[in-house]
Amino acid sequence: MKVERNKWQNNFSEWYNELIETAGIQDKRYPVKGMNIWLPYGLRIMRNIEKFIHEEMERTGHQEVLFPALIPETEFQKEAEHIAGFEGEVFWVTHAGHDPLDVRLILRPTSETAMYSMFALWIRSHADLPFKIYQIVNVYRYETKHTRPLIRVREISRFFEAHTAHDSFEDAERQIKEDLEIFDNLAKKLALPYIVSKRPEWDKFPGAYYSLGAEVVMPDGRTLQIGTMHNYKQNFAKAYNIMYEKEDGTHEYVHQTTYGMSERLLAAVIAVHGDDRGMVLPPTIAPIQVVIVPIPKKDSPYDVFAYAREIAEELKTAGIRVHVDERDIRPGRKFYDWELKGVPLRIEVGPRDVEGQKAVLARRDTLEKFTVERAELIEKVRETLDAIMDNLYARAKEFLDSHIKRVDTLEEAKEVFEDRRGVVEIPWCGEESCGLEMEEILDAKMLGIPYPEEEAKIEGKKCAHCGKDAKFIARFARTY
Amino acid sequence: MKVERNKWQNNFSEWYNELIETAGIQDKRYPVKGMNIWLPYGLRIMRNIEKFIHEEMERTGHQEVLFPALIPETEFQKEAEHIAGFEGEVFWVTHAGHDPLDVRLILRPTSETAMYSMFALWIRSHADLPFKIYQIVNVYRYETKHTRPLIRVREISRFFEAHTAHDSFEDAERQIKEDLEIFDNLAKKLALPYIVSKRPEWDKFPGAYYSLGAEVVMPDGRTLQIGTMHNYKQNFAKAYNIMYEKEDGTHEYVHQTTYGMSERLLAAVIAVHGDDRGMVLPPTIAPIQVVIVPIPKKDSPYDVFAYAREIAEELKTAGIRVHVDERDIRPGRKFYDWELKGVPLRIEVGPRDVEGQKAVLARRDTLEKFTVERAELIEKVRETLDAIMDNLYARAKEFLDSHIKRVDTLEEAKEVFEDRRGVVEIPWCGEESCGLEMEEILDAKMLGIPYPEEEAKIEGKKCAHCGKDAKFIARFARTY
Questions:
Q1: pLDDT, tens digit, for every residue of B107-166?
Q2: Which residue ranges in chain A fall short of pLDDT 70?
């Protein structure tokens, strides 16, 4: 049987919107635009993703905190550039009970302005640095663009943000490297290949010295940002007066970084690995890694249900997340359900399997079926789950690579965007005016230049727009 | 050494407020009244409590969901009694970006009105029942009373709410019994003895048919509600049109219940088990169950740090949460810190312990110290952690029992409230007017009647206020 990805690729938007609901990820019928309900199955996948995030945070010495979701207008307004970047899209709490509030509150769009006056109280000396905290919380943005579950929403309900403070620019740079390493570990668990770009000046995070963004390429060729890291230098420290005492007794502003991710990680998993039958979950984060479907036959002397339960017990003991589907419906309907929900591996057992002490394994990613001996089951299941993980990554990597194209001219770039789309890499002089005009001409966004920057530098090429000597490779894409 | 509980009991409010900050539970300096910041240590304890909640929910077949935090005014107003109960204390989101919203949004004070129009879509037939979901989220109440961390706040950031739907009143009653069993399991993990009362009509949850509340007695004799269960009968089902098809094809409104808890569980743990030195955490939820303090001696040939690390490794392998305090400060200061933070067991190792292959164990609850053989360490640590658990419960139970007094007259009741306070049980005719007047006279709240109600019924007594035949025992207390 062939893996079909027609609808997935050619009608992605519809495919995605349907799947979110039919696979039990979110319900979009909640009566506030851009705010959706997490359904149990979707939430279990997201929790598994978050478990990896918590583990990485613990490994790297970040401490978990939880800040209030409301920020006083007065705090919010301390850093001018930051405010300007968010003011048009914040939700305002203006009344409580029957009365107007003395100081209006905003629902956090991100927590810099909530956290940093506390940083000023918490950080005293060089011994307190580096200071590393994180939280996973709900944040709010009054999106005026078309909303889409997990991707563009007005309540991001699983927003991860790490905030750090350092004694020097160099140490902040080391932190950004650590962030990228964390991201890489996480992406491996999700079998997601990605690219990292340094955002152009005109698209960095409000208040940042520079911003990095990690992107995946979606089935329709548009890119989705799933991780960002910002080096703030001392911008916020100066606005919020966050100073530390150096060893020599003098005082200095700290250097700061942040690192952000969200439920977009799940959107990327759904989109990148899916096919026309539904989701394909990496075994690492699948709530059910193996589903067992008993296929009874009338008049057979063998109890396939008992056999299924025995196998399930054995897999569970081996630490595998397993479920036996004992519903009173046809096996075909069960196959359909679990394929939609992306369960990586299905085990079918019929009377003949009981008799021969065998089981049939069906891979969700390749749709291949094969028979294994009962005695080798655990080993084969483990091997197959690993093989699925590897195949998901390899398939996604091939897709990503085939959607990154380096060109020399804007004409070639235009062709790419008309054809299979993806990311186009174009020689660029480095001037803002040229960059903005290329965005206009291509009707695409500049993601930035490849990061680390050494990979972005080129020689002997001309800027595709102005014709002057090009300094960098710039990436353009249609984005989510 | 004796466990001192003078300040704890006689100056509880000050004791508690200090401890919240010094033990690293929350920071109260966040610039919005009644909204506090969870610090890493406090959050780790709360997460451990939540782990037990998640386990109980899984055991009892509740599914986790996540609803948006904003509720449209129109949804909120569908159930008149519920609205009346909350309208004076909700936060209003009236603007987004630069514009007023068409429909104003409220920050959820609890989620009935957010959830139940979805229930109407999700629940179709008797086969969908019982329907059991829960979430742990932030909710908001514009408290006008004095706020207090974890106890009375404007953002409850760890609000647990389970919502269920049933095909009959009987099945809803079965759910309430399950809720009480869940609560009992959880309370055991927290070593918290408690009482359950059925709230009087005038104090039930807005929209409920009846409400149960579980209370602990705090060190100052006031009670703290730490769990509530409500049977809604069909009140909300009718307002939100939640119907199911019965086996005979007719349609009927569902019966509903809810179950609520919050970070007050942690407040109760801190308050009930503490002493003048700080917190005493039940080993079940302590982020660090055992702290090892090496006590080096100058010129000693023994490396106590290496010995401490070895012991730590052994404990860790045995599944015990352990930390070695290698800070370059005096042991006495370390003792002070970890006693404040409530680490259940301290292990001290000096050169003599290395030499004799021993270790000194110090219990946080009783402050007892004793020496054990290295070979028996794991066993002794496990035994001692169990003994601490038992002792915490026994001590708290004794305190609770000694603070519940049954009396016949209001004079006697008044004396109790003047003296050591706690819960007073008084014969009551069952009339609302009498109950309210007794609240007035005693300057106390009626918690309700003991639950299950069989325990509340009495005969041969007269109502302490009106003198008519008493039907119930009613509980009164000063409450948080």
A1: 999 999 999 999 999 999 999 999 999 999 999 999 988 999 999 999 999 999 999 999
A2: none
Q: Name the residue of chain A whose CA is nearest to B75's CA.
A: A31
Is the predicted pLDDT of residue B420 greater than 80, yes or no? no
Taking the C-alpha atoms of residue B349 and residue B371, their distance in angstroms, rounded to an integer, is 10
**A268 CB neighbour count, 10 Å cutoff:** 27
- Residues A144 and A220 occupy one common structural domain: yes
CATH no. for residue A81? 3.30.930.10
Q: Does A37 contact B118 at a Cβ distance shorter than 8 Å?
A: yes
Can you tell me the distance from the alpha carbon of B209 to that of B201, in angstroms, rounded to the nearest whole number?
9
Query: Which residue, of A351, A384, A417, is where some domain finishes?
Result: A384
Domain residue limits at A327: 290-384
CA distances A84 to A159, A205, B16, Å, are 21, 11, 41
Put simply, the answer to whether B142 touches A96 (Cβ < 8 Å) is yes
Same domain, B377 and B419: no
SS3 of B183, please?
helix
A422 domain residue, yes or no: yes
- State the count of interchain CB pairs (< 8 A) between A and B: 140
pLDDT digits (tens, 9 = 90+) for B253-280: 999 999 999 999 999 999 999 999 999 9
The alpha-carbon radius of gyration of chain A (Å, integer) is: 25
DSSP-assigned letter for residue A168? S
Q: Which residues of A174-191 are buried (b: 16+ CB within 10 A; e: fewer)?
A: ebbebbbebbeebbebbb
User: Is residue B399 domain-resident?
Assistant: no
CB B108 within 8 A of CB B140: yes
Give ∠ CA A104-A108-A110 in degrees, rounded to 5.
Answer: 145
C-alpha to C-alpha distances, B470 to B41, B397, B414, B465, B466, nearest whole angstrom: 49, 28, 19, 10, 9
Angle formed at CA A447 by CA A444 and CA A452, multiple of 5 degrees: 155
Other Cβ atoms less than 10 A from the Cβ of A413: the count is 22
Domains contained in chain B, number:
3
pLDDT digits (tens, 9 = 90+) for B163-209: 999 999 999 999 999 999 999 999 999 999 999 999 999 999 999 99
The answer to whether residues B91 and B35 touch, using CB atoms and an 8 Å cutoff, is no
Instruction: Indicate whether A226 and A351 sit together in one domain.
Output: no
Angle value at C-alpha B262, between B256 and B268, nearest 5 degrees: 130
| A267-298 per-position pLDDT tens digit | 999 999 999 999 999 999 999 999 999 999 99
pLDDT tens for each residue of A464-475: 999 999 999 999
Nearest chain A CA: its distance from B90 CA (Å): 5
In a domain, residue A328? The reply is yes
Q: Of B49, B91, B263, which to mutate for an interface test with A (greatest number of A Cβ within 10 Å)? A: B91
A89, A97, A117 ranked by CB distance to B31: nearest: A117
